[in-house]
Every structure is written in structure tokens, then in C-alpha cells.
Amino acid sequence: LTREGDYSEAAHQAVKRFATQLLQHFSLEREPVIIALHNTVDGTYSIESYRPGAEHGDAVEAEFAAFRHARGHDPAERDRLGDVLGIGGTAVVFEAERLEDGEQVVVKVLRPTFVDNPDLVRRLRREHEVFRNVRHPGLVPILDEGTLTGFPGADGSPYLVLERLTGQTLSGKLGAEGDVSGPECIDIFTQVSSALVAAHERGILHRDIKPENFVMGMGHRSHHVYMIDFGLSKRFWDPKTNTHIPYREGKCLTGTARYCSINTHLGFEQGRRDDLESVAYLLLYLYLGQLPWQ
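The chain above was modelled as a monomer; its predicted structure follows.
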């Protein structure tokens, strides 16, 4: 819900009902059950539960079936898709192999459900723009981008091809090691801040600083931190008019609530200082093991 910018009391109550129903199903049902929380355009919420294959679940099943059948498909005849690494709210990430040299990469594809949503299509395009224009060793190198054609069930979905990183996210690092030392936190802070400044110098806000959006390198790069997701980024500086975006109030929350700045929670237009405040909360999480308000 927060990734879609909704943090209302109605949303909070919907999540509580959703969690309650989820727990009831886990305790009473032995068969697989899909539970969906729907956010409608008129601001209301509904909860739907069904077994896979049930009539009103066909759309969900069809979408995931398309991805299952996508293995081996070849977007733009350059990359061979492998297994699904993850399915997010708006995109699916595949492991893949570059046909020209056998390099292991990842392909991030907009979910078929959202192909006709211009805002989400623009969001993925903007992410490509960020990775292409912000040159910094702390950003994942982008290798390719395009639009799927002939993809079963997802024709017209935009995609990105990125270098594959096999290290842990910062949250995974904390879970595996139990804590992160003070010197490590300083090193992570230095790298994250440097990458963030590079984005800010290009007029781009990240707006979703959190442990899951940073990955550690492997081998000789095991202490290197990479920023991997700019899905909620936004331009704060208009290069055409050479002006800052205007100050606004009453904005919906964008980002991950527990890492958002206080002003973001108050509904103020985000700026560079909000990204930096989120970095501070990221460090608190790593050093303390959890945030005081979790």
C-alpha cells in the first residue's frame, strides 16, 4: 500500500482485516489459498480469497502461468530467461543469460497486469533513465532495455537488463550476521551517500531508501554496496526550466513507511534532505538490529 502512495486510516484497517483473514486461513486450511487485497479507484478496499484455479482467480493464475511458460523465451533475441527470482508489486525479476557471451544477468519486466497503466510504464522507463544517466560505481550497471514482443501473456511489457549481483541485501546481511559493526556502518554510509549524491547531482530523488534496495558484492567486491532499485525515483530539478519542483503539502506517502522522513509522513513534497534522513534510519536499523519504532 505504501509503495502505491496510500497511507490512510482506511488502508490501515484494511491491512488489519487482511492479516486477520490470512491467519485464519493458515490455521484452518490445509490446501493452498490465495488472498488478495484490492485498492479500488474510489478509495475503498476489498479482500478476496480463493483457491488457485477458482473461477474468479483466473486472471491471477493466467498472469503467473505466463511467467512460468516464459522460461527459455528470448527478449529481443539477446537474453535467454531462466527462473523467476522475485515477483514484486509491479514487476517480475528473472535470472537470464546473455546469448552473445553467456554472462549471467537479471531481466526486470513490468507485470502484464500493468502494461496498460501509463504511470507504471513511465516508472520503469524512468528507472532505465536513472541507471543510464547516473554514472557511479555504487549503481548496478544497466546493459539493455526494451519492450517485449511475442512474450506469452506479456506482449508489450517494458523490461530492463541489469548486471546480476549475487550478494546479500543489507537486510539479508543483518539477518545472517546478527549485527553490523560501527566501522562497517560507516563504510556503508560512505558508499550509500556517495551513490545518492551522484543521483542528486543529476536532479533525481530516490524516495525509497531501505535495506532491501542495497546489495553487497561478492568475492573481491564483498565490501562494495550497490543501489539496485530506482522504481520510486523522481526528478526534483527541471533541466528545461532550471528550477526546483514547487513546494507542496497534502502529498500521499511515497516510499517504505518505517524509513520515510518525518516530513514525508506529514505530507510535504520530498527533497534531497528526505533521502538523507532515510539513510540515517537505514544506519540505525543496521547498527541497532531494528528501528526503535518497528
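DSSP finds seven helices and 13 strands in the chain.
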